[in-house]
Amino acid sequence: MTKIGLIRHGSTFWNKEGRAQGHTDNALDEEGKQQAAAIAERLSGEQWDFIYSSDLLRARQTAEIIAERMGIELAGTVPGIREMNGGLIEGTTEAERFKRWGSDWKTLDLGMETPEAARIRGSQAIRDIAAKHPGKNILIVSHGAILRHSLRGLVPNLSVDEVLKNTSITRINQHEGAWNCELYNCVEHLDI
């Protein structure tokens, strides 16, 4: 059985401001670094063989903090698990989108990646990582929207309506070609 721990990156200033990040390469804020240290502490009592990250800075910083504290090397960055492209909405808040494009902004072609494209891209990237390390325990640090859509591709019956929290862990495993989820959006390591 191959076990995958999917981790959303730590918080950024744009998270706090409610700004769409997409491919914008934002760094973690101080709280995000503390969250990464907290998830690393939680995971340090478990066996993890590899850690991968999205190629965006906020995920890579989270993965580097986890890797350093756990004494494992960052195995690589994977563009396939990069956050969904937000097109013209990147850097804007919901209120700014309403003001700029009106209440129907979600129906406009603003250059955003579609959920279907994200589902295909993200789930394939996770399958590829799992295929490289059969029977191993692998951490993948990525982003909220792409992880939720990827999970729809891997575990179609799983409800992923709940937005993933910063540094939450979702554990999935693959056994004989089938995927299942044993833990979703867990943040017990944070003082929430």
UniProtKB/TrEMBL annotation:
Keyword Hydrolase: no
UniProtKB keywords: Kinase, Transferase
CDD domains: HP_PGM_like (cd07067)
SUPFAM superfamilies, per the entry: Phosphoglycerate mutase-like
Active site: 9 (tele-phosphohistidine intermediate), 83 (proton donor/acceptor)
Matches recorded under Pfam families: His_Phos_1
GO molecular function: kinase activity; phosphatase activity
InterPro entries: His_Pase_superF_clade-1, His_PPase_superfam, PGM_Phosphatase
GO cellular component terms listed in the entry, alphabetical order: cytoplasm
Residues reported in the UniProt entry to bind substrate: 8-15, 58
Matching Gene3D superfamilies: Phosphoglycerate mutase-like (3.40.50.1240)
Entry annotated with the keyword Signal: no
Protein's name according to its UniProt entry: Phosphoglycerate kinase
